[in-house]
Amino acid sequence: MNRLPAAANVKILLGALIVLATLVAAVSVMKLDSFGNRGNSIGRKFTDEITELARIDPNLILYEESSIRISTGFEQSQAIAADSEGRIYVVGDNALRVFTPSGEPISRISLSQTVLCVEPGNDGRIYVGTRDHVEVFDTQGQRIAAWQSLGDNAFVTAVAVSGDDVFVADAGNRIVVRYDLSGKIANRIGEKDLERNVPGFVVPSPYFDLAVSKDGLLRVANPGRLRVEAYTLDGDFEFSWGKSSVAVEGFCGCCNPANIAMLPSGGFVTSEKGLARVKLYDSQGTFVGVVAGPDQLLEGAAPYVAVLPEQHRVGGFDVAVDPEGRVLVLDRAKNAVRFYTRKKAE
Question: What is the dihedral angle through the alpha carbons of 320, 322, 324, 329, rounded to the nearest 10 degrees?
Answer without folding.
Answer: -40
